[in-house]
Structures are given as C-alpha cells and as structure tokens.
Design a protein that fits this description.
14 helices, alpha/beta, two-stranded antiparallel sheet, globular, about 425 residues, 11-stranded mixed beta sheet, single chain
C-alpha cells in the first residue's frame, strides 16, 4: 500500500475533540480498544425479552448509565430528552477534549446535530392521544404549547422529544451564535451533520463546528414497529453476540442500538493559533439523495458508488488513494448487497486489497448516531493505525466475494478512511478522513 502525504493547508478541517457513548462505554478510547479486542455490546434487553418480542437483543445503553449521565446535566439541558442525555455527554466531552475556551457570542461557531425520531414511550403516547382530533385527523399540539393549563395533566416534557432541542440547548450552553442545524436524514444523519459542519468551515463561514448525532431507539414502540419492515434480525435461539452479521452470507437484518458521538471540527489555522493538537482531518464529503425506493437503493450499487466517487473527488483524491473503508454495513440483505456492489464499482480490482470493516457487528445500528460514532472510530483508527474487526463474518455471498473483510483487529499503515452512511429514503453520505502528520 503506497501512502501519499499531503502538505497541511491552513484551511484544512481538522478534528480537535471527540466524545462518545455506545453500549456500556462513555469514553472513546475505552470503546475503541474493547472493539479491537473483539468485544460485542449487543445483548438481551430484558424488558423486550419479557415481552417476547421477536427482536429482543439490542446495542442499548442501560438505564443505570443513562441515570448517571442525566445526573450531571446542567439547567440548560433539562429538556434534551432520552437521546439528548447521551448526546449532551458526548458533545461536552468533545468540547472539553478540544481545549476550546468559552466562545460566548461567537458567530463563527456553529452546531450541527443529528437526531431522527420522536420515540415516545407508550404512556406518553396514551396521554398525547387526548390531543387528537379524530374528525380533523390532526393533533392540536399548538394548544398544548400555548395553553398548558388546559392540558395540565399531560407530561411537561413534550419538548424532550423534539430532535432540535439538543441542538438549541448545546448552543445556549456554550453561548454559540453561528448556524444551528438539526439533521434528520435517517441512518445517514450523523454523517451528514459532520459533512455540513465541514462544508461551513471550508466555505469560510465558520472557524469551529460542533458536529455529531444522538439516538435512543431501543424503546418498546420502536422495536415492535421495525420488524414489520423486515429490517430487524430476529433473536431466535442464537447467542446475542452472533446476531449482527454484516456482509456475511447468513445475515438477516440489523440490530437496533442507542448511542451518541460528537466531534469538534476546526479550521487548521484556528487550531494551530491556539496550539491545539489535531486527531485527524476531514478531507472530503458528499451527501446525495435518490428516489429509488424508501427502504433500499439500486441493487447494482450505482447510487452508492456515485456518492463515494463524489466524496473522493471532493477530497482531491483518486479511488487508489483510499486505504480503508468503514462500511455502513448494517447486516440487512439489501444494504450489504448494494454497498458491496458499489465498492466493486468504485475500486475495481483494488477492492480486494482495501480493508473493510463494519463496527455495527459489535455495536448495532444507532441510526443518526451511527455515522458520528463511526467517524470517531475512524479518526481513532487513523491515529492508532489499527482497524477494528467485523464480528460474525465467516462466508461471503456472491456480491461480497473479493472484498477484504477484516475479522480480527489489523495493525497496518494507512493514511485515509472512507466512511459510509446510507439511510432510508435514499439519503446517502460518504466522509473521507485523513491521517494527521
């Protein structure tokens, strides 16, 4: 593998801080090295098992961890909700690790956060149903917000379920006056949030962007809904750690997960002026939208390939300059087939020599959080020169044949990572990360 070094540019977008919550880990280094040791964070969810749900395993963050993180929230985070509790920890940790001072009032700093779902608990749904006008077919939520006294017995935490509450709360806490954007592009949202922050810095509009995503979807209502799409892997009688099988011939669906990750992106000149150390560089990005079908893309991989090629070009690179792929790799039949086909289209014969991994085999699929989690792990891979394994991969199907799926932690020299996130509704995202000198 030939490594090509690029000279630093003052307008490069570098990563100066990271924070993460996934599985049982609330520290990026802890999670990274456990993954490289072959650990799996997928396990039985006792409530879902007791309810005899067909998919009772998940990469959930347990209640004890959530309570611990929630106890540390300041007043500004009072309404961030279940996903926001995880996101708040990850974002504040990323900011702290970046070493940035309080930038109160700065319009050169923005927040780009991803969170998709209004994942209401069953009791909250029952309470809110009283706001439903059956004749009109609408919810009168404006009445709730404007006239609390009329529905005073309803939960006072409705705003906790709005995806943009976390974005606004983080901006208030850090006193940031730049753009505030909440992304909800399904499974691609976390990567798109990072790409949006990257683009705002590259354009000269911002010097710093707090970017990432958070999701807490291992709720009863969500886990009962997704099997109807045929997307979740049934638990059956397999051990929990063997159920998520990205790219394996025997794969039969993804495992749902909770999680959050945030990164601090900075213009290189801004970071160097304050003596900050960069972890890695965001070198390229592309987000595309297609209209093939709601739950899958063209099986020949053409739409995924177009997104990857555009991101590589945005980084000023050629396909031969990509040294590692962190795949979307959910473990569904359709996604893995599309992504594998796309990798063959983009890299041709070189696909056989590019290490490929999917950490969803260990963590499950956290929707908006996944792209951000995988960006953090990719940045750490570049720094440590280690590629985490794909668990449970034993036999490729016809499309996956010829790809170098990493099954044990691999220590090697590499300079670039291509990280994919592909979402329902045809939302596609590819990030290119590069090693710092």
């Amino acid at each position: 593998m030939e490594l090509q070094k690029q000279s630093p540019d003052e307008d490069d977008v570098v990563i100066t801080g990271i924070g993460l919550v996934a599985g049982t880990a609330t520290d990026p280094e802890e999670l990274f090295w456990q993954l490289n040791d072959g650990a799996s964070f997928i396990r039985q969810h006792q409530e879902h098992r007791d309810a005899e749900l067909p998919a009772s395993v998940s990469g959930h963050v347990d209640e004890e961890t959530v309570r611990k993180l929630a106890s540390a929230l300041p007043e500004q985070a009072a309404r961030v909700g279940a996903a926001g509790v995880l996101g708040w920890h990850a974002a504040v940790e990323a900011w702290k690790r970046s070493g940035l001072p309080n930038l109160a009032g700065s319009d050169r700093v923005g927040v780009f956060a991803a969170c998709n779902k209004l994942a209401f608990a069953p009791d909250t749904l029952a309470d809110l149903s009283r706001l439903y006008d059956r004749q009109a077919g609408t919810f009168d939520l404006d009445a709730y917000l404007d006239h609390r006294e009329a529905v005073s017995d309803l939960p006072d935490d409705l705003l906790q379920f709005l995806p943009d509450t976390l974005t606004a709360s983080l901006a208030e806490y850090f006193g940031l006056g730049g753009p505030l954007v909440t992304h909800a592009e399904a499974c691609a949202a976390g990567g798109v949030a990072i790409g949006s922050g990257y683009r705002h810095i590259r354009s000269g509009e911002l010097d710093v962007a707090l970017v990432g995503g958070a999701e807490r979807l291992t709720t009863y209502s969500i886990v009962t809904a997704f099997p109807a799409l045929g997307a979740l892997a049934p638990t059956g009688d397999k051990p929990s750690v063997e159920i998520s099988r990205p790219f394996d011939k025997a794969r039969n669906g993804f495992v749902i997960a909770d999680g959050a990750a945030f990164l601090v992106l900075e213009r290189r000149s801004h970071a160097e002026a304050r003596g900050a150390q960069a972890l890695a560089r965001v070198a390229g990005y592309m987000g595309t939208a297609e209209a093939v079908r709601i739950t899958s893309s063209e099986r020949d991989g053409a739409t995924y390939a177009a997104c990857m090629r555009a991101a590589i070009a945005d980084a000023g690179l050629n396909p031969s300059d990509i040294h590692h792929v962190n795949a979307h790799g959910t473990g569904t039949q359709a996604n893995d087939e599309c992504e594998a086909a796309a990798l063959h289209l983009v890299f041709g014969a070189d696909a056989a020599s590019i290490p490929l991994t999917s950490t969803k085999s260990s963590l499950g699929h956290g929707f908006a959080a996944s792209g951000a989690i995988e960006a953090v792990l990719s940045a750490m891979s570049l720094r440590e020169q280690v590629i985490p394994p794909t668990l449970n991969f034993s036999e490729p199907d016809d499309v996956t044949k010829g790809l170098d799926v990493v099954t044990k932690a691999r220590h090697c020299e590499f300079d670039t990572v291509l990280s994919n996130s592909f979402g329902f509704g045809g939302m596609n995202c590819t990030l290119i990360l590069a090693k710092e000198a």
